[in-house]
Amino acid sequence: GEKARGEPPRLQHLALRHRHHPPRPRGPDRGRREATYNPDQWLDSPGVIDEDFRLLPLAHMNSWSLGIFAWAALEPEPGVYRFEWMEQILDRAAADGIAIILATPSGSKPAWLSQAHPEVCRVNAWQGPRLPHGGRHNHCPSSRVYREAVTRIDTELARRFGRHPAVRLWHLSNEYNGECRCPNCLARFRDWLKDRYGSLEALNAAWWNAFWGHQYTDWEQIHPFDYCHDGMILDWRRFVTDLTVDFMLVEKAAVRAHSDQPVTTNMMGHFPGLDYWRLAPHLDLISNDCYPGFSGLADETATMVGAAFDGDLMRCLGNGRPWLLMESTPAQLNWAQDFRLKRPGVHRREMRVQIGCGADGTCYFQWRKGRGGGEKYHGAVVDHAGHDTRVFAEVAEHGQDLTALTPILGSGVAAPVALLEDWQMRWGLETANLPPKQPVDKGYMDEVRAWYRALRTRAVSLDLLPGHGDPSPYRMVVVPMGYQISEDLGQRLISFVDQGGILLTTYLTGHCDAHNRCHLGGFPGAGLDGLLGIRVEEMDGLPPDQTVTIRCGDGLPGLPGLPATALARAYCEILRCSADTEVLAHYDSEFYAGSPVLTRRRHGAGWAYHLAARCEQAFLDALVDSLVASHDLPALCPQRPEAGLWFQERSDGQRRFLFVHNATTQPRQVQLAPGPWRDLISGQAVSEHWVLPGIGTRVLEAQP
Ligand code: GAL
Q1: Which of 161, 378, 542, 575 counts the highest number of beta carbons within 10 A?
Q2: What does the pLDDT read at residue 30?
Q3: CB 119 within 8 A of CB 145
């Protein structure tokens, strides 16, 4: 649905313009505590499934996701179906009040299908050999045979179980990903291009094909392996997303023909290969898989940044609505570099961080460790040793806590700040032939995360906003490395500032349009030069071991609280400023010493800031503190919290719930805004100042 907009709600401590998310009625996706359940691995092991039904309530869980990789168990031979085992599980689940998330099994196909129809397998190198059967997530998404086979099994599932009382949600496939380069996919790419551009003239112009004389005169000449065209590679990636969506919609149609239950598919955070903003509108519920690898052995702020960055994205993909953490692990990861245990309490903190991001359910991969195969050492609720384990006990404790956290269900997050972050920007930078070679995204994701960290560690709630999004509900919008700025986005940002918004852009902003063609007339283009009152004349690219000093204050107007000096790395833009642009910091070394690096300009009722170089985290932190103070931006606590503390808030317009986590192993002093506060788990009143032990986590409610 569209963003719910309306009168800004008046919250007790926050007078802010923000998106308001009215609470939704409680539905089947609320309060899910689920795990991936693979009984298809245990059909020949008497007693195991009985034991699973006994243990699920002991773990304080209420749901399983079923059948994710069960195609071969459901259809052992073409057209021969074995649904009895699944039916028995569903009937028992219904009788026991267990909700089932039913998966379509397209993520892993039966061997007989690949043997009979090799074209269902992927070609992953250009005109390379077709991959043999094996692994998973390995199908050709345009194969007609595969689509028909998937439609048949999905239809059978939905016809039999789509109205079964235990089935409450559809789990379409599993972690859609990857691409295929077979002749079929190529033909579809060309059709996609015809739709997009209409003519080869338009395509040649969009891709700047006069470069190296690459003009096409026939659609058949187009081969998306030609890496000299960044416009083409960018379009290939867009096509891969659209083809994936198309495949997903085949599955959605198959289940929807026989079932009214909502559909989801499990995403993978900031997965580089798919633009999730294009998948999201087709889903009734957003869900995510998140494996941050916490162990509780050190200051895990960086890990928390990564986990919450993904979680906040999921909320925003769903237009602010609660989402579902579909997979996580209560114990170790078998695929990680090390096999460190999660220290006691770490699991609870990890789950609560996701709830703080807007998750209304926390689920696991996997319920029970298998005896063999590639994931037998992956953490699970039920171990090879059974359930009499610390891990099982911690899962059960978290499940019990969730009962006390029920009032949070359905609430949203009121964010005064948005961070503009987009796959299109990332892909634009990845495909641009611009140094450095590594990282391929030119450090884009690190830079976005650095701003996310600076804002979140200052306890500022934020949303992630795509390039097509609406900045107007926010007080401040930060655009790190906003490489692709279309005229339309430029206009939205200009009117945002005009109407009182605070915009902060950084180096490498406004270079290109949506085809990765550079704007002419000086960067940043699309009107941002006039807004910011700057023109980037040149950009210095530094090798990794070099820094440039920058100096703040020093007779310049300055923002309060900025350090006297800081270091810039990687990219240093050399700016020319208009007369009405204030210079807040300048370079202090290199031949461009003395020239501006941090600027701001008043425009309409708002402010437009530009930071022209990549700066250290400490500088971004200080800049955020300063902006929060100077513009009176709402934050969840009065000052920047002690390092390692992490604050989140959910609210439904009336009730406000504050999450406080300690990412370190050491106690931290917590200073809250004026209360009164109540601990949601214990029900006890809580003062404004207290100590949170290492790895600690607490959920409070602001009392009216
Ligand atoms: C996910 C996948 C699961 C399982 C898990 C292990 O990516 O969806 O099936 O493999 O990783 O961490």
Answers
A1: 575
A2: 60
A3: yes
Ligand 1 contacts (CB < 6 A) are: 174-175, 289, 291, 327, 365, 375, 378
Cα 467 to ligand 1 centre (Å): 30
Mean pLDDT, 10 residues at a time, the chain of 704 residues:
28 25 40 84 93 96 96 97 97 96 97 96 81 89 97 98 97 97 95 98 97 96 86 96 98 98 98 98 98 96 98 98 96 92 97 97 96 95 97 97 94 97 97 93 98 98 98 98 98 98 98 96 96 97 97 77 94 98 96 97 98 98 96 95 98 95 98 94 96 98 91
Distance 259 CA to ligand 1 centre (A): 26
Query: Which one-letter amino acid corresponds to residue 143?
Result: S
- Ligand 1 site-directed mutation target among 175, 334, 368, 369, most atoms within 8 Å of CB: 175
Per DSSP, helices labelled H in 280-358 are: 301-317, 346-356
Instruction: Tell me the pLDDT tens digit for each residue of 542-556.
Output: 999 999 999 997 666
What are the tens digits of pLDDT across the range 304-327?
999 999 999 999 999 999 999 999
Decide: residue 134, CB within 10 A, 0-12 exposed, 13-18 middle, 19+ buried.
exposed
Name the catalytic one among 75, 300, 327, 394.
327
Could you give the CA distance from residue 225 to residue 231 in angstroms, rounded to a whole number? 12
Distance 494 CA to ligand 1 centre (A): 43
Q: Which of 34, 75, 175, 251 is catalytic?
A: 175
SS (H, E, C) 505-573: EECCCCCECCCCCECCCCECCCCHHHHHCEEEEEEEECCCCCCEEEEECCCCCCCCCCCCEEEEEEEEE
Paired strand residues for 171 = 103, 264
Enclosing H/E stretch for 502: strand 502-506
Q: SS3 for 389?
A: coil
Q: What is the C-alpha separation between 571 and 446, in angstroms, rounded?
A: 14
**Alpha helices by DSSP H, 287-439:** 301-317, 346-356, 390-404, 423-431
Tokens of 152: 């048949």
Pairwise CA distance, residues 200 & 216, whole Å: 7
Nearest CA to ligand 1 atom 4: 365
Q: Find all residues with CB under 8 Å of 130, minimum gap 6, and list them.
A: 118, 119, 121, 122, 123, 182
Q: How many whole angstroms from 370 Cα to the centroid of ligand 1?
A: 13
- 380-389's contacts with Cβ under 8 Å and 24+ in sequence apart are 380/35, 380/329, 380/330, 380/331, 381/35, 381/55, 381/59, 381/61, 381/330, 382/52, 382/55, 383/331, 387/55, 387/58, 387/59
Whether 578 contacts 565, CB under 8 Å? no
Query: Whole-angstrom Cα distance, residue 347 to residue 344?
Result: 7
Which helix or strand (DSSP H or E) is residue 662 part of?
Answer: strand 656-662
Bridge-partner residues for 382, per DSSP? 368
